[in-house]
Amino acid sequence: MKLRQLLTGLILFCFAGAALADLEPWKDYDIDKGVTNVTTVKVDSNMIDKYLEGLSQTWAPANDVAKELGQIEGYWIHVSQLPNSGDFNVVLGVDFKDGGSALQADKAQYEAFMKKWGEENQKKSDQVVMTYPDIREIVGEYMMRKVTFK
User: Fold this and answer.
1) 8 lies in a domain?
2) What is the mean pLDDT of the chain?
3) DSSP result, the chain
4) Residue 101: inside a domain, yes or no?
């Protein structure tokens, strides 16, 4: 009987200890106002260079325009050094200053982007992206915020 009480007490103590260890946002860590749109992509391992070539002609220049217009903070691409392991081997990221107004639909921002991007770039982009389904699959998309411990 005493062993059962001792075990019950030990289990309750463990749960109470775990509850006391909880962190609180803005007290124990800060959450950045900016957000990053992260897209995970599984590219056929023998097609990664072809995919990167397409991104260099479409996705990257479009993000350069958006950055120049102040619509995004920046963008990045990470490629796995082990392209055949895991669920994805390419990660695309677009950094936004905040998760509010920067992600809202805005006609003026769209028109400013399209004016600067131009019809020729859009046509070229449309042609290039038509090949993507043959070489890659988007396996996830996430909106992430940076956390910094105090």
Assistant:
1) no
2) 89
3) -HHHHHHHHHHHHHHHHHHHT---BTTTEEE-S-EEEEEEEEE-GGGHHHHHHHHHHTHHHHHHHHHHTTS-SEEEEEE-SSTTSSS-SEEEEEEES-SSGGGS--HHHHHHHHHHHHHHHHHHHHHHHTTGGGTEEEEEEEEE--EEE-
4) yes
